[in-house]
Amino acid sequence: MLLIQLNHRMAYFMIILTFYSYFGLFICAHFHKITFFTMFTGILNMNRKLATAIKDYIIITFGLSLFALGWVVFLIPAEITGGGISGVGAVIYFATKIPVSVTFLSVNVVLVLIAIKILGANFGVKTIYSIMVLTLFFALFQNVVEEPLVNDMFLSAVLGGMAGGIGLGVVFSRGGSTGGTDIFAMIINKYRNVSPGRIILYCDVIIIASSYFVFHSPEKLVYGYVSMWVVAYSLDSFLSGANRSAQMFIISKNYEKIADFINKEAIRGVTILDGTGWYTQENTKIIMSVVRKKETSQIFRKIREIDPDAFISMGSVMGVYGKGFDKIKL
User: What is the pTM of this model?
Assistant: First the structure.
């Protein structure tokens, strides 16, 4: 009964707080001569930004859970070491039984503090969030699976690498980072003209090689490098697959119908270029459009229906930035 009364009081409190918040906004708008429409638009924009931020953090959390899954379910039970600070934590765990979460958090805290001092106080909030969440996942789930799910070491390395790579891809796609060697690479890159990718690669190679001093097993060393390669391949495949686009050039006498379909049905931009056929010396119109790869089959079917003799050239595009595609992130 007491709990129900508390819930009612909390509800009343939130209603009153919301009322006074909007009342305050109305008063401010009145004194500063801001129209109600402008004020309402501002509130909607704030809500959209908040919704986008919440969505980003939910997706980042999902990616981190996949990354942790690869470690606690496949790699650690099979005693396989991967790259990054997670790999450092795994090596220390195999040697001393100190939980991976303790090492992961300790090393990252030091790196973050150094990064804030060197790179500035506006260091990535999403990175710090990812470090804390990943530490929590390692602490909660490391000892849940003590025996390998599969008895094949190679399969464990591949499955663990795939889960880790896809998880990282999900995190990176939302502007996040798992910290660790990424932070180290940014610090080194500030003072030396070495690409962050190369620094991370060197770190991962050294981290996995250090596992030899724990296991004295070349076999497990090889499986560690297999896992590292699968992570890199899965990460690249995920990021390029999510952004894979095609640039289409279409030459047809019925270019207007095709352009209308792409513009109104496929909801993609179309540019009409002027061209001249050198063999026929006839002027012609060329449709240029950039679409997602998954949309091309629908466009091909419609082109065949409108003009079976249309000439089409299609090429893969690594990145497309602008309305309807990705935003430039610098």
Answer: 0.65
